[in-house]
Model the fold of this input.
Amino acid sequence: MVFQDVRAANGSGSARLAGRIFVFANGEIVEDGTHDELLAQGRFYADMWESQAEWYRREGAS
Done:
């Protein structure tokens, strides 16, 4: 038996747990891969991840 699960994530916190992530821009897939692969590419997903991580670092320090 094969199970498939599709989830939409607005943030990268839950997305990083997925086996494969698709990043959309203007209705088209612009990146896909695992969390680690997308971070290594240093494009859209990596920028979003770093932006959210920076917010958590600031808020955690407050």
